[in-house]
Amino acid sequence: MEFSSKKIRDLAVGDRVDCYFIIKRVDLKTTNSNDKKYLDFIFGDKTGEISGKLWEVPQDIETYFTEGDLVKVRGTVTSYMNNNQFKVDRIRKASEEDGVIPEDFVESAPLKNTDMLRDIEGYLQRIADQDIHQVVRMALEEKKDKLMFYPAAKRNHHAIRSGLLYHVLTMLKLGDQISKVYPAVNTDLLFAGIILHDLEKINEMDSSELGIVKEYTLEGNLLGHISLGVKNVDRICDRLNTPEEKRMLLQHMILSHHYEPEYGSPVKPMFLEAELLHHIDMIDARVFDFTLAVRDLEPGGISENIFSLDRRRIYKPTF
Amino acid sequence: MEFSSKKIRDLAVGDRVDCYFIIKRVDLKTTNSNDKKYLDFIFGDKTGEISGKLWEVPQDIETYFTEGDLVKVRGTVTSYMNNNQFKVDRIRKASEEDGVIPEDFVESAPLKNTDMLRDIEGYLQRIADQDIHQVVRMALEEKKDKLMFYPAAKRNHHAIRSGLLYHVLTMLKLGDQISKVYPAVNTDLLFAGIILHDLEKINEMDSSELGIVKEYTLEGNLLGHISLGVKNVDRICDRLNTPEEKRMLLQHMILSHHYEPEYGSPVKPMFLEAELLHHIDMIDARVFDFTLAVRDLEPGGISENIFSLDRRRIYKPTF
Amino acid sequence: MEFSSKKIRDLAVGDRVDCYFIIKRVDLKTTNSNDKKYLDFIFGDKTGEISGKLWEVPQDIETYFTEGDLVKVRGTVTSYMNNNQFKVDRIRKASEEDGVIPEDFVESAPLKNTDMLRDIEGYLQRIADQDIHQVVRMALEEKKDKLMFYPAAKRNHHAIRSGLLYHVLTMLKLGDQISKVYPAVNTDLLFAGIILHDLEKINEMDSSELGIVKEYTLEGNLLGHISLGVKNVDRICDRLNTPEEKRMLLQHMILSHHYEPEYGSPVKPMFLEAELLHHIDMIDARVFDFTLAVRDLEPGGISENIFSLDRRRIYKPTF
Amino acid sequence: MEFSSKKIRDLAVGDRVDCYFIIKRVDLKTTNSNDKKYLDFIFGDKTGEISGKLWEVPQDIETYFTEGDLVKVRGTVTSYMNNNQFKVDRIRKASEEDGVIPEDFVESAPLKNTDMLRDIEGYLQRIADQDIHQVVRMALEEKKDKLMFYPAAKRNHHAIRSGLLYHVLTMLKLGDQISKVYPAVNTDLLFAGIILHDLEKINEMDSSELGIVKEYTLEGNLLGHISLGVKNVDRICDRLNTPEEKRMLLQHMILSHHYEPEYGSPVKPMFLEAELLHHIDMIDARVFDFTLAVRDLEPGGISENIFSLDRRRIYKPTF
Amino acid sequence: MEFSSKKIRDLAVGDRVDCYFIIKRVDLKTTNSNDKKYLDFIFGDKTGEISGKLWEVPQDIETYFTEGDLVKVRGTVTSYMNNNQFKVDRIRKASEEDGVIPEDFVESAPLKNTDMLRDIEGYLQRIADQDIHQVVRMALEEKKDKLMFYPAAKRNHHAIRSGLLYHVLTMLKLGDQISKVYPAVNTDLLFAGIILHDLEKINEMDSSELGIVKEYTLEGNLLGHISLGVKNVDRICDRLNTPEEKRMLLQHMILSHHYEPEYGSPVKPMFLEAELLHHIDMIDARVFDFTLAVRDLEPGGISENIFSLDRRRIYKPTF
Amino acid sequence: MEFSSKKIRDLAVGDRVDCYFIIKRVDLKTTNSNDKKYLDFIFGDKTGEISGKLWEVPQDIETYFTEGDLVKVRGTVTSYMNNNQFKVDRIRKASEEDGVIPEDFVESAPLKNTDMLRDIEGYLQRIADQDIHQVVRMALEEKKDKLMFYPAAKRNHHAIRSGLLYHVLTMLKLGDQISKVYPAVNTDLLFAGIILHDLEKINEMDSSELGIVKEYTLEGNLLGHISLGVKNVDRICDRLNTPEEKRMLLQHMILSHHYEPEYGSPVKPMFLEAELLHHIDMIDARVFDFTLAVRDLEPGGISENIFSLDRRRIYKPTF
């Protein structure tokens, strides 16, 4: 067959290919000039996204495809408004015989989610203070299932399958290492803050099991994950009868971890572990974004302006 | 007797007077030049504050006076650093025979607190939605006793005895009037938001029964009255099984009522009643501060820069 | 006839309809691919706007249509860049026999303009101070004719026919209600400030009698309605020999009503009525924008980011 | 006589001197420790200011001295809070026989005011456009008398006798020179803008004939010199029937000359001469402040933080 | 021949013309609808830019044209998205016989570069301090060749051929004139600061000999022309053994000339000549931008919002 | 003897003690009331500072004491403006027999400076890239002597003897630990950036061997340690012929390490190690300030507003 198969990142204008893609979005539209219907797709695989068009739409398939479908497509790469676009010639849903699974077509954390959860539970074991330990255990237990696949954001840093789990685990490792430099750090508080700080993103956003977020939830919009986090700890502490000071310190860490009011924190860190939590969160987000920014660059190359990095351009050293 | 009695606002340099004052602060200090001990006071009455010094301190009274004491003092008004100061010749605690009560020497809301509470309960009656009604009723019931005397702030607007009660009542009147202009306003939500928005100031600050706040509480410092308010509504709604949407809307009103992130609101109002709550809160605070700013001015006079009003100077028209 | 008639808000992709529209904008253009001329329209009715294309343009009608024309069009609704678009098959100007009038095809204030003016004059009657009364009466008299149809803005809040009149009247009602809560408010000053504050928008913008603004005027660009308002009051007070203090207070209210320097106010309010004027203006603008934001939402729905509301998304409660 | 005479800038702790000073401020106060009255002065001469105390105050002179008095004082220079202070032994008003005049004891512009006015009128002659010429002539004529002594500010740049005149003249020279580099500049507009831009400071502040400003006027507080300037040009243009465009451009230059909204300009410059006016104003203010900042420094020295220069420290080169 | 020739600024929709253009950008693209290749150009001449399309692309010319080529094109002016566009019918590279040179098709400074350099060297001669003179001479000598054609920016002010040379010369003229008003200005420092302040833009940006900048260099991105300028002066002063203070003052002028930290200056001007350098730089940039903004306006016309002028609209007076 | 000896932190009003102090500042002043001379001291020891007064000053000791002297003083602790003050009865310089050394009376880093330097050199050994290694070695070698005692700041974090050394070492430890979590980090670059980033503080500030900074140097004021650092690396790389890219990356790390323009960084980090350098710097500064803030608090206590921590109050948990 003349059609080769490529990853989205490798597609070039003019390529004629057979590929498996995930449908990340699909809309039925009508052309401007002659009222013909067409399907407007966003396809994705592990390496990126590309928009696609199917110009001839038999009526019976107008609503046949939906988001999250794994499909096999044949077509040509064209250019539109300086971006690659995929002109679909044929498209069908992948079947069992194709031997492909959706998980292979979405970007995921580089570690296995069950391993990550086990490692996080290892850190949980190291929280010696029993009051704090119980709160964190219960919070983690309740969210465990969704944590397996949730991303850490709709877009920006860690917006990948199991991204939230990966973010939390890496932060725990960081917190552990930093505490070795500063022995006065209370790792019970720090580990607890790290595990709890973003947990309510699971209620703030609505994610499919592929880690794709379509929308914020209503409570996400009206209250935000920080206030949801405070409420969640409150509820758990009520049940566990957690002493007042510990409850307040855990809530304060959640409340202050974005640091700046305009990023959603109404108070700034007032004890050392809350301060460290913020910096650890920042470092892990930035390492993720810097790594992504240079992933496709040649050594010595410089990126476009990266929105999530204050529109900076990032350089990849040659050595 | 040669000594007259005056209100603090009327004292002038050179006056020699007998007055009753509340002690708002008292410290034992030592003079710089000759190591003599003296008592350093801040005295107050309904009309203002004045600092005072007692230069000869018999050892047995070094710790005799304390904040909140109502005292009778005799002395002279001097000037120090361009401010009036009170040089104390004699001082004693007021006794029953003096026929004075502390409440008459602190600034209070212009309405009787029992009347104000009754009026607020009248507005509560008008909340027709039974879910919302129950939440507000329980919240109000729990705070009722302290609400009788709490100020609305440590300083700035409504920092007077029963100031919080007065602020809430006036806001309810405003909300009622504004709703007549815009019939689409849901007064159930608006009245609820007004009653609930600042209730947790009672846990944020530590006030004496005279409405004088010495300190913020630890939870006030670590969490702030806005987050405390969200938690409080959560706890009550858990008990009452309030439907999810109503719970969220009540919490959103509390969360967004300061409007700007740098004033403590992590989200901005997302429905009309939350938006109105913010403006009503602002108007009532500003009317209070403008009224205070011109209280002692002659018509045609202009105030000094007022800190709480963005350092503006306020003008009192002649007509 | 197979073609039905619909309001713009109700049009759906694929609809084939006969409608009356107002032409809000029309340009003769040439297509990119084959140099053919076409007419590019923005059509409007009471419910919204839609862009339209006429692809075959006989030479004699190239300049036949103009903004403000009421036309009858037949055509199909298509989709372009995710927005509805109207492909025109036939178009002609409406004639008397059609029995339609332009006023029915532009969005207007919900009250009759003659009624609104009469009500505003009622508030004018309540200004007891004769100096202030005369200034406001003359200012209103001079602008009365244009006030009948002017919008309050080119876009954003109250950008509708007679929107300025409606904005002023609603603010007067608000001012009246708020003054009942604070008896110290001088309603002479407040009502005067409300009626005068935006009057010079009539000279700042150039509006057709349908309330559609194409452009700011030169003096609008160079000086702005606030400075024009100060000058206008100056001119009137010169003629009426208004006492100096009253003149200054009226001018100060105009000057400070946007409150923030970056929104055009070089001074901040320095007396109570100027402060209230600002808040009343804000409330009425916000109520308008919130109402608009939820107008087409289902209960429980949430809007897109609204530009004029700091890019907030607005929620419509289900109850 | 053992007492020498010195200028304020040259006084050192321990000096015992006979000097003539201007009284810039005087208050009758009472000492903190023993209720004794004393007079608290701020004295000034051409070289600076020093606070002074007269500890023994015969009753008949308690109100004898007033601001602006030229006095002869004998006393000692002491140090208080790291600043020099003048302990007065003797003080009397200067009489004719002393042969001193107040003007010699206040800081004044370095040029004679009559010469400066004559030079400004020379620039006025160069405004060829008769409409603009007439407006500027009338505005200048009306303010001429006060312009002879007014400072340009209460404090900060050009806060000296005849400082406003000096500021305007230097700006005209600058405008003239800059226009030689850019021949397209319309010097009629630029010279007019320079002469008019600050004229209403004369109504904004209340200055004695010595160029000392005690207070802003009410219209200065409520409207500010920029709005006063716009009104003033309006009034003059009404009388002269100035064509509309020229009136607007003159008013726009006044309105925009502070450039930033937070410094009082509601619009930014919209034509070249308005833009240049702003920069010329800035340059002249900055040259004045830099010159003052290094006046008393040794070469190679660095100043304290200068408030009017964004708290910068200014360096004086050695060459 | 039926085809006339026009400048880009004069082209109107429907024109059919033969023109010489410079190619400012060229990309091979594929159409969206039918996968056909086309060439997408940006053409330029002294009067502006226009995008162009060549729809039929013989395979042998797909990569034949490149940026900076001077070409002869025949085609039609169409309209796309409200902008003119050029539909190319024929295109070929210009040859010697055409008698045209690239320099005539890019916008250049209005003075001859050799004349400008000579004038700058004249100012250099006037730097009397031999230490400073030597530094500036060496810096100028090293950059002379590139200075002949470099623009002062990639876009915004002075983004034209020889724009940097022109900017520096005009600033020197300004500095000279301003110094006549303030005799205390050290023109040695000021002239040196002006010549040095932007020289390292030559290493910050990569410009063709036509003055067209495609990219910032790596050191331009990582360090910026201000830090490069400080380093450059350091290197030269090392070689010349320049006294320490002079070296620091020259470096301080470069470092502080953008004034605001957010525009790249880590320190603010700390002596008069550094302060003046900033204002002179601003004035010359603004005069350039204002002049450009009104160049194509009719008298009495007003521009669109100009990005480089804080989005202001600029007015062109009628007189 | 009746006089005990105490550390400054332990002094209470009324204490009569014999102590050794370091003189941190001394001025000869004259009293306000009676022109008597006195010596005004700031004394310090390892635990804090206290101001002191010697009221009777024999003429021969007026200039006898100087900053940095270690003295023995006898006197009484009084209170002035709510701060403790030391009334000196006797004072003499400490002599050898006293058996005390200045180093014991200034606050120093908690590790021995020779140990710290050795550890830093250990990290230096781990920089494998020989170009980078050589640059860092030379820079460190040149500053080694002063690094032994320099503080990292005039005030704020690490403003203690050998504070700079301590700050650098702790950052290296942090960088080492963080790199273990992110294996992609180039520790050659990161360690180099950490060692170099603040080295030029040694030329920015003028410190005594006790680590007390009186003043910023002229080059510190005019250029700042960031620009000095860039120049320093430039000079060393010139000598060592360091490849261009490595030179630029080292300079970029210095230039960007304060991150925000308003804190002195004209560019933001453009590669991962520069980004990490900033966060590591922040963490170490914050840990220092938090530790200091709670040092004297009881568990459960809350500090005053800490200036260097954005005026936050810091809480010390009870567990």
From TrEMBL, chains A, B, C, D, E, F:
Q: What is this protein called?
A: 3'-5' exoribonuclease
Q: Name a biological process GO annotation.
A: rRNA 3'-end processing
The record ties this protein, via Gene3D superfamilies, to: Hypothetical protein af1432 (1.10.3210.10), Nucleic acid-binding proteins (2.40.50.140)
Q: Which Pfam families match?
A: HD, tRNA_anti-codon
InterPro entries recorded: HD_domain, NA-bd_OB-fold, NA-bd_OB_tRNA, YhaM_exoribonuc/phosphodiest
Q: Which residue numbers delimit the OB domain?
A: 30-93
Q: GO MF terms on file?
A: hydrolase activity; nucleic acid binding
Give the superkingdom in one word.
Bacteria
Every copy of the HD domain together lies at 165-285
Keywords in UniProt for this one?
Hydrolase
